[in-house]
Design a protein that fits this description.
Blueprint lengths: L6 H9 L2 H21 L7 H17 L15 H21 L1 H10 L3 H7 L5 H11 L4 H9 L2 H9 L5 H21 L17
Length: about 200
């Protein structure tokens, strides 16, 4: 069944108080981009930095905290975040190698992995991937439509040679966090035996 979420509500929540944190959020996004670019040859750092950025987004929403320290918080859980990052990249790359559509499905299904890890300090990287897949059952198409709501913003990023992305990226991720929290509130992903991601399930 196709589940439908209130996308406008998440976007409205993302806008709340964004004016107070947008500048430092832009700085954090720039630093995150630089860190990912500088370490792109060392994929073991992708997970820790992605976790750190997810943690930063959460803290700007829940506490309006713009301190940049959360960007490196993934190194406090280095093994778990490294495993999550490597498996995430591997699964999506295999999906795109096989066919474009399986890669997109994999990306949608695993999209909440790092928000799950930020939300649960005890979950492993593998279990976070599994939980994201379980959580997104029935919501992949809806989340794809949610992402499409930002196409105009992404086009602005292209037209500004990427400069606008330093504002659009945290804005999008704030909305994504609220989408994630709605999934949690709906009880999505609550199972004792989450199924592993496969390319044949949607």
């Amino acid at each position: 069944l196709l589940a439908i979420m209130n996308h406008s509500h998440f976007i409205a929540l993302a806008k709340q108080h964004f004016s107070k944190v947008w500048l430092m959020s832009s700085v954090a996004t720039l630093l995150y981009s630089l860190l990912i670019s500088a370490t792109q040859s060392f994929l073991i750092f992708t997970g820790p930095f992605t976790y750190g950025y997810a943690d930063y987004i959460r803290q700007t929403i829940e506490r309006e905290n713009t301190d940049l320290n959360p960007l490196i918080s993934g190194f406090n859980r280095f093994v778990e975040t490294m495993v999550a990052g490597l498996l995430y990249l591997l699964i999506i790359c295999i999906g795109f190698y096989l066919l474009i559509v399986p890669g997109i499905i994999a990306a949608l299904g695993l999209s909440m992995t790092f928000f799950i890890m930020v939300d649960d300090p005890n979950i492993s990287g593998v279990d976070a991937l599994r939980k994201s897949w379980q959580m997104m059952k029935g919501y992949k198409a809806d989340y794809f439509l949610f992402c499409c709501r930002f196409i105009g913003w992404f086009l602005i990023c292209v037209l500004t040679f990427g400069l606008a992305s330093f504002v659009v990226t945290p804005y999008f991720n704030r909305a994504k966090w609220h989408y994630y929290r709605a999934l949690v509130s709906n009880g999505c992903g609550e199972t004792n035996t989450p199924e592993p991601p496969t390319f044949i399930k949607n």
